[in-house]
Sequence to fold (174 residues):
Amino acid sequence: MEEFEIQKMTHKNLDNILEIEELCYGPHHWSRESFLTELNNKISSYYVVINNENRCIGYSGLWKIVDEAHITNLCVHPKYQNKKIAHKLLLNIIEECYREKIKFITLEVRISNKRAIHLYKKFGFKSLGVRKKYYQDNNEDALIMWSENIFDEKYKQLYDKIKKDLIGINNVDK
Fold:
């Protein structure tokens, strides 16, 4: 069984990340320069999932602004999808928000990305509107999603249940 570990993203991960970007998003993906900028951004945190061959197979990023976090990206290599890796990356984001005392998490997601929308809804995110023609490659709308206050007891119970259900899956329990 393959094992995975979540680590802070570094410059050495960028070749693998750009490969995943190309596979998942085609020619309209983030550039190396975009990731380099984010790695030097004081309000951002980026993480990678590393497999037992020391390859990055997924990543996530967020901006932290006062008591809100904005998920900038969350992506898993197509070969490793449906293994709960995106769940683990999202749990990792929420754990960082707990540590940093960040109450709310927001994101935009393509309205056609039903799998991602389902994931975010599972984690208690709700749709609060649409950004018309948000994506430049095809003018697709983006669904704006927000979490409840993650320090609310109801949300903590949801988080604890998801975490308990995922512990031990591929050893990504950090």
